[in-house]
Amino acid sequence: MRSTRIWTRTVTAVTVMAIALAGIVVTAAPAQAATYTGLLPAGSKLYPGDSLTSANGQYRLVMQGDGNLVEYGIGNVVLWASNTANKPGAVAVARMDGYLVLTMNGGIFAKWGPNGYASKGFSVEPDGSMRTTDTAGVVRWQLTAFQNRVPAGTVLKAGTTLRSDASTARVLTMQADGNLVLYVNGRAAWSTKTYRNPGAWTAVQTDGNLVVYRADGRAIWSTRTYRAGGGQLLVQVDGNVVLYGKAGTRSWSSKPVTTLLWPVVSSTISGRYGDDRGAGHVPRYHQGTDAAVKTGTPVYSSGPGTVTKTVANDPSYGNYVVVTYGVTTVLTAHLSVIEVSTGQVVGAEQEIAKSGNTGQSTGPHVHVETRVSGTLQDPLTVLRFR
Description:
The chain has 3 domains: 7-145, Orthogonal Prism (Agglutinin, subunit A), CATH 2.90.10.10; 149-253, Agglutinin, subunit A, CATH 2.90.10.10; 269-382, Glucose Permease (Domain IIA) (Distorted Sandwich). It is 3% helix and 42% strand. By secondary structure, the chain is mostly beta strands.
């Protein structure tokens, strides 16, 4: 058996958000822009406006006129970018020696992957990942960009996969046989049972319904949530597929949803959401709820989620952690110790920190803040005491 070393770079969901906010400018493609499908053969180039799409057409890599090489996912979500928007006229080259490079005026200013082998080319795969292979078809380097959610008004075509995170532990696949299947650790955990329908696809509809359509356009399965309004479909790290409606509320899920838990083992509250803290406080009205616990008390995750921010020594919050659970985020602040890192996937009831008295705090406690679809909500209406 041949031993193959695959070089992998992972782009997390947090990175995707940062790129999307960085102000990527999409420039108009020239009239004769070239589009490659599946593979950019070794020795080929992407000029400004050219693109490389996955075989199922759901993911595309675009060489933009501003010099940025960008991969877009379903619904034009930015999955990866070279962050080279200050290089107008740049060209991407899949070199014969295995490197993917960006060039301008004859000089190379960015490159990815190992070299030293005869390359077949650079490809965009049906799951959104990008890779180089040698002439024998062996993967030599891979850039793992993933998509864990799709907005209303989009479809999942045959061969398309969504993943909860950079791993392959939780994968939702629209199979070629017409079955929409959630795999957890390689085993089917849920499906629409619509196999024997080759050519079928799944629509995340703007009316709030998730529907599997046969190749002839006939609906063969749905969530029957057509009154929920268009939201998004999300593959979560708790192994659940959840459909959210227009208001950001859960309208359907592949398995029952467990309530998120209060971050400490205590129900003693020292400050409530919306309390008027008096003039001079910014913000004046309390944005969270305070758990009165002594310094060093374990702070736990509220369920399976992804750490989306860790900050030390913030003037107001002190040390704090933000964990995302589907469309809900839970912030815990004034911590003495942070025990997780940004991008880390945490399990149910995993210890993530210890309470403290850091930042703008008048005594030991944990400040708890919750947002649902970006909107502040009273933590006591979102979280359940342990």
